[in-house]
């Protein structure tokens, strides 16, 4: 199929490359010239395992091109909208500027028979509104909503082999059938592998996406709330999560207590969902998401307070080593990263923060040049009064006391992700502190 992907950020760049990898002829379109130049040269503009490989192979096949010109979409018949919906400044709502601009920019190039496919995470009601826009500009074109569930770090696999597909289609059965036929062809490979498919209306498709993220955020804040109780009772939240996780109705995944969730999705999506519920006169239905958010933000404060405490009540002029800046491992994304937030807060309290991360230093440095960034664990912990493990990269999960014993000034470590073996560190003479674990 001839496909255009409008928006080449974390979602769109991966989607464009994956669609080409699946055999479609794809043009990726973005207003950011730098991003387009990098992608056209086969370079991923951000760190995502597997993306450089499929960018190279798709570009070599001639099936993947990039452009900053919306007119490049004119040849395509399927148009994915994959632009961002960040939090609107001064509000909890989603900023829809980019989605509207993408659709408006596409309208002059749409033809009868074309299908516009929304992938961005949007407030419920958006698809119906955009469908009107498309229909009034080109009556023979249509719109479907096809939310994306990819996780950064696994984005290529999640796009090529998703765990489910959701199509939100028109309420007109004939139009709906035509849209489904197009999407079935786009996703022929996944469907041939028996990927579950839910075909539904626009509102349900939009709500599936935000409900999934709200549920995941709630699961993480639930276990973090239990971690707070574990901290005052001497219980072990990791063993507790293992035990409740054996109940298949609960499940063990996304029950890792720590410094909380961040990134470009969960935090802003729960806020936008709550804001939309208020607009719909149903604010009370999602009021619990405010609590989910508060529990999450409290985790960062807890680590800052604990660190100051362990430093004797004063962070000023103390050397703090920070291992991990990305919002999660296998990503260079620092959007709303709890790790970076903690580093910045401690810096603000006068601590001398030296931070490292395998991939996120460039992004972190551009945003917070006041922190001191180094490439290795050894440089980060050199002379440190305290070590904070804040993003559970594989290389940090594997550190042993003997690796850093001789480098630090003080043997105190805060394991913000509960990934180290407490006994090993204590036996080596360290003051080891974790999240909801004795
Ligand atoms: C999330 C969803 O998991 C995807 O399904 C969704 O498609 C995506 O948002 C999106 O809306 O685009 P992602 O932002 O890549 O994906 O990150 P997650 O893997 O969900 O992790 C989010 C945060 O939760 C990270 O900061 C992670 O460290 C934290 N987390 C995760 C925990 O603190 N504990 C856990 O047990 C799991």
Q: What this model shows, in words?
A:
There is one protein chain. This protein is globular. The longest helix is centred in the middle third of the chain and has 32 residues, at 202-233. It has 18 helices and 14 strands. It has 438 residues and is an alpha/beta fold. It starts with a strand and ends with a strand. Helix 12 crosses helix 13. It has a 6-stranded parallel beta sheet, with helices on both faces. It has 3 domains: 2-195, NAD(P)-binding Rossmann-like Domain (Rossmann fold, 3-Layer(aba) Sandwich); 210-293, N-(1-d-carboxylethyl)-l-norvaline Dehydrogenase, domain 2, CATH 1.10.1040; 296-434, NAD(P)-binding Rossmann-like Domain (Rossmann fold, 3-Layer(aba) Sandwich), CATH 3.40.50. It is 44% helix and 14% strand.
Give a brief rundown of this model.
The chain contains 18 helices and 14 strands. It is an alpha/beta fold. The N and C termini lie far apart (56 Å).
Q: How large is the radius of gyration?
A: 23 Å
CATH homologous group name of the largest domain? NAD(P)-binding Rossmann-like Domain
Structural classification: alpha/beta
Please bin the fraction of helical residues: 40-55%
The hetero molecules present are:
uridine-5'-diphosphate-glucuronic acid
Form type: globular
How many H/I helices? 18
- Examine the coordinates and then state which fold CATH places here, giving the name of the CATH topology of the largest domain: Rossmann fold
Percentage of β-strand residues = 5-15%
Distance between the termini: 56 Å
Supply the CATH architecture of the largest domain: 3-Layer(aba) Sandwich
Largest sheet: 6 strands, parallel
Classified by CATH, the class of the largest domain is Alpha Beta
What is the domain total for the residues?
3
Strand order of the largest sheet: 3-2-1-4-5-6
What average pLDDT do the residues reach?
97
Q: How many strand segments?
A: 14
Low-confidence stretches: none
């Amino acid at each position: 199929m001839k496909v255009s992907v409008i928006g080449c950020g974390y979602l769109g760049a991966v989607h464009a490359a994956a669609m080409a990898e699946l055999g479609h002829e794809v043009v990726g379109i973005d207003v950011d010239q730098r991003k387009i130049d990098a992608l056209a040269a086969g370079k991923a503009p951000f760190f995502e395992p597997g993306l450089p490989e499929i960018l190279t192979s798709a570009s070599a096949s001639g099936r993947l091109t990039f452009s900053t010109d919306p007119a490049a979409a004119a040849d395509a018949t399927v148009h994915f909208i994959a632009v961002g919906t960040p939090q609107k400044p001064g509000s909890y709502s989603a900023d829809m500027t980019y989605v509207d601009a993408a659709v408006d920019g596409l309208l002059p190039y749409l033809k009868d028979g074309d299908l516009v496919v929304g992938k961005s995470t949007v407030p419920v009601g958006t698809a119906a509104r955009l469908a009107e826009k498309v229909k009034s500009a080109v009556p023979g074109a249509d719109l479907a909503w096809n939310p994306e569930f990819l996780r950064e770090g696994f984005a290529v696999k999640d796009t090529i082999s998703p765990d489910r597909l959701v199509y939100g289609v028109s309420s007109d059965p004939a139009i709906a059938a035509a849209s489904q036929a197009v999407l079935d062809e786009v996703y022929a490979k996944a469907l041939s592998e028996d990927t579950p498919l839910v075909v539904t209306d626009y509102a349900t498709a939009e709500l599936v996406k935000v409900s999934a993220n709200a549920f995941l955020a709630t699961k993480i804040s639930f276990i973090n709330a239990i971690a707070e109780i574990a901290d005052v009772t001497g219980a072990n939240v990791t063993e507790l999560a293992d035990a409740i996780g054996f109940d298949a109705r609960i499940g063990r995944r996304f029950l890792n207590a720590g410094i909380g969730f961040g990134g470009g999705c969960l935090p802003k999506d729960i806020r936008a969902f709550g804001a939309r519920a208020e607009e719909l006169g149903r604010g009370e239905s999602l009021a619990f998401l405010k609590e989910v958010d508060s529990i999450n933000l409290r985790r960062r404060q807890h680590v800052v307070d604990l660190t100051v405490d362990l430093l004797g009540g004063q962070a000023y002029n103390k050397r703090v080593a920070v291992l991990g800046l990305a919002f999660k491992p296998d990503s260079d994304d620092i959007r709303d990263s709890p790790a970076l937030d903690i580093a910045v807060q401690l810096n603000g309290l006068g601590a001398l923060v030296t931070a490292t991360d395998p991939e996120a230093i460039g992004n972190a440095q551009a945003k917070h040049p006041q922190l001191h960034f180094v490439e290795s664990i050894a440089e980060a912990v050199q002379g440190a009064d305290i070590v904070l493990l804040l993003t559970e990269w594989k290389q940090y999960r594997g550190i042993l006391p003997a690796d850093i014993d001789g480098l630090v000034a003080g043997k105190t470590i805060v394991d913000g992700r509960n990934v180290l073996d407490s006994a090993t560190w204590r036996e080596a003479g360290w003051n080891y502190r974790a999240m909801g674990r004795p």
